[in-house]
Structure formats: structure tokens, C-alpha cells
Amino acid sequence: MSLNSRAIAALGAVVVVGAATVGTSVAIAAGQTEHISHQATLTVGNSSVVAQPLCWNGGSPLTEDQQQQCQEDASKALKAGTLPSSDVAGSDRVGVGVSPNVADTGWWAFTNGGSANQGGRYSLFSASKGQTWSGAQAAGKVLNSSGKTVVTVVEGDPNQEAPIAVWYFQLNSKDNS
User: Fold this and answer.
1) How far is CA 171 from CA 65, 83, 139, 168, in A?
2) CA angle, corner 66, sides to 63 and 70, nearest 5?
3) Which of 11, 34, 103, 109 counts the highest number of beta carbons within 10 A?
4) CB burial readout 130-141, b (16+ within 10 A) else e
């Protein structure tokens, strides 16, 4: 059986679109024509939320003062309800993706949910380089009991102490409504 060039092109398009979905195609899907180099995507079930970092120092590590300001800004945004957010049920699956250049630097992601023996934190993705997707975790494991769980994504070289960029997302539990 031989494939004609039209079938091969169509198959190639499916592979390219499928492979790019996790990384950079989010900008295209959002109607943006330019590549956005520093973004993170929170995926809950079949929906996604894309955000620019709340804290970023143009690609240089954040100073201690900038890290402190970042935490204060995140707390204010959480209280004001302005963090990028998504509704989640305990039966959903939650994952995080980052731009390829963020993955090249290194990144990790966690929530302020999880059991007490995990220190009240749940790791969505351990510090690593190269991968753009955390994989999908059961939401019931990552949520805290308050009904509002914060997902933190950090770009940084795992061998360095200071982060380069930080994103915050909020998961709103539909099970606690």
C-alpha cells in the first residue's frame, strides 16, 4: 500500500499539531501570531489557562527582594481573585506545560495541596530540564481542603538557588461549592 503525497502531508500536519499542542501552539490557538517565550499553561481536564509569569527579571535570576515582592504580589492577587484560574473537580486531571525555552532552563511545579506527610505540598513536576509537560495528575491528590489551591510554576536551573520566573494559578474546587 502506498500513500499519496496529500495523505502524507495530512498525516504530517496531524503529527506537528499534536506535538506542538503542549508547548508553543497555545499562542496560536489563542489567536496570537507571535511566539511567546515565557509562558506556562495549566490544564484541567480538557481546558487550559495560559499565563505570563507574575515575576520575571528579563531572564536573569530574581534577587531576594524581587522574590519577596513576588510572594507579596501573589498573595494580593490571590486575595483579589486575579490569578489565572480554573474550576476543578476531584475527578479531573491536572497538568502543567511550559514553553520550550523555559524547559531548556529547567522548571518545577507544585501545589499548596497534598497530605500532611507531604508537608502540605504536592509536586506536579520535579526539577528537570528539557520536558515541556508535567503529565496529568489526579486532581484529588493535588487539591487542598480550602477549595482554593494555588499552583506554582518556577523556571530556574535546578543547580541554582534563585528562580528566573514564577507563575501562579488558582484551582477552584467545584466539589466544595
Assistant:
1) 27, 10, 9, 10
2) 140
3) 109
4) eebbbeebebbe
Establish how many alpha carbons lie within 13 A of residue 83's alpha carbon, considering only the half-sphere containing its beta carbon: 30
Going from the C-alpha of 15 to that of each of 21, 30, 103, 136, the distances in angstroms are 10, 20, 21, 21
Q: What value does the mean pLDDT take over residues 145-157?
A: 93
Average pLDDT score over residue span 97-104? 95
Enter the C-alpha cell of residue 123. 509536586
Return the higher-pLDDT residue of 36 and 104.
104
> What is the rounded radius of gyration, in angstroms, for the C-alpha atoms of the chain?
18
Per the document, the length of the chain is 177
| Coil vs helix vs strand at 90 | coil
Q: How far apart are the first and last CA of the chain?
A: 56
Calpha distance 5→19 (Å, rounded): 21
Q: Does position 67 have pLDDT exceeding 80, yes or no?
A: yes
- How far is it, in rounded angstroms, from Cα 59 to Cα 105? 10
Give mean pLDDT, residues 134-138.
Answer: 94
Mean pLDDT value across residues 9-13: 39
